Amino acid sequence: MDQKPLQTMGQQSGRRSWAEPWKIKMVEPLQVISRDQREQALREAGYNTFLLKSDDVYIDLLTDSGTGAMSDRQWAGIMLGDEAYAGSRNFYHLEAAIQNYYGYRHVVPAHQGRGAEHLISLAAIQPGQFVPGNMYFTTTRLHQELAGGTFVDVIIDQAHDAQDLHPFKGNIDLAKLEQLVKEQGADKIAYVSMAGTVNMAGGQPVSMENVKAVRALCDHYGIRLFLDATRMVENAFFIQEREPGFADKSIAQILKEFCGYTDGAWMSGKKDNLVNIGGWLAVNDDTLFEELRNLVIVYEGLHTYGGMAGRDMEAMAIGIAESVQDEHVRSRIGQVRYLGDLLIQWQIPIVLPVGGHAVFLDARGFYPHIPQDEFPAQTLVAELYRDSGIRAMERGIVSAGRDEHTGEQHYPRLELARLTIPRRVYTQAHMDVVAESVRAVYEIRAQTRGLKMVFEPKYLRFFQARFEPL
Ligand code: P61
């Protein structure tokens, strides 16, 4: 019998292979429940993957948030927790790491990203002001709205097109931004809210050129520029890879340069910073810092722990240093890209180019026969779970929610299912299993039917909404 010669991944791409820059010291067993059990689990979860029990999940690609594996150094750091109510030494380690790698002057700890978003929104938004940003993120926009602001999307148009190959689809459209400033007046703009990378656009990066230009525009009008730094390390990788003049700079250098164009940042440490819980805010302005330091006590905890245990702060300080290692970022994004490249080769519709933290399946491409009101991306994540026990996340009309004033549903152009890759957790073999399950679901796409929503919560409905098959 004729057998094709087996090729390693590297050989298939005409290059030498690379591998993860770590080895595994401890394992966590996985199990797959039967198809009948998965059917039942889906029904009980109202076809919402957020409502599944994790014991019923095989490969969990719901999110990369807090799901990463810590290193042996970080676990050792956990043992060095100084659980003093005030002045924990771990806070000073964390503060130094943020100042060193991100470059901001003042640090305020928070229990996670949305805690930090709450504080910056309260401190920097006056009711009635506008907050332009490069595409909405669910919690970010909600906190801006709850503080009385109105979010305005000023990302470049290409970001809303799943197939557009622009290398920096996270960029802010300067003309859109300037038009808003001119229409409303600079005093009606609370600040510019820039995320790197842009989660809802598919993990797409912002270029250094763009942040510089936005900085110049903000300086011209006297507007502040704040960064959602949640996945900014991954953004730095794309600048190193794609932007002229950065190939010889390290991730750490690029990160610091980029942050240097902004007035401050908020952070969900659960992503880039390689911890299971934690977050922070960092700003340069003394007065704003005083305000944030005051607010943190009300909502999060004292200004030297902000809702985190001392040990969590130590793990994050160590995680920050690990997160900017070039080999780490290359292998992290390399794994995401490996999965994406398999799907591209099989002509399965995904968001292009493949972004930093996830592969986003284009549910419109899967199910052109399912109208957006019947939740194509929600259907897709349910189908994937049914096929293999793999858990993904809806990022389409359910996530987009409703207009806060009119109550009308937002109809986002992107209707996506996110296969989010936790950091340092799964292997290449897991990625193969995921790719094959996506293909199986794609093959039965024509006979797949949509869903109807039978329960809708008021805030961030995607977390707890329930559905039934049509
Ligand atoms: C995620 F379904 N992201 O991607 P917190 N900014 C950015 C984030 O990605 C982010 C936060 C701020 C999550 C968790 C999550 O609709 C959802 O530490 C760019 O989660 O509070 C979080 O940071 C907030 C999942 C959040 C969601 C909101 O999976």
Structural overview:
By secondary structure, the protein is α/β, with parallel strands linked by helices. It has helices at 9-12, 35-44, 72-78, 89-101, 113-124, 138-146, 174-184, 208-221, 232-242, 251-259, 286-299, 310-323, 326-345, 363-366, 376-388, 397-400, 428-443, and strands spanning 106-110, 130-133, 150-153, 192-195, 225-228, 264-268, 279-283, 358-362, 393-395, 416-420, 451-455, 466-469. The protein has a 5-stranded mixed β-sheet with strand order 1-7-6-5-4, with helices on both faces. The longest helix has 20 residues, at 326-345. The N and C termini lie far apart (47 Å).
What key phrases describe this protein's structure?
470 residues; alpha/beta; five-stranded mixed beta sheet; three-stranded antiparallel beta sheet; 12 strands; 39% helix; 11% strand; binds ligand P61
What percentage of amino acids are in beta strands? 5-15%
Bound molecules: ligand P61
- Unreliable spans are none
Which of globular, elongated, flat, extended, rod-shaped describes the shape?
A: globular
Distance between the termini: 47 Å
Total beta strand runs: 12
Give the helices and strands as they follow along the chain: HHHHEHEHEHEHEHHEEHHHEHHEHEHEE
Sheet with the most strands? 5 strands, mixed
Q: What is the helix fraction of residues, given as a range?
A: 25-40%
| Oligomeric state | single chain
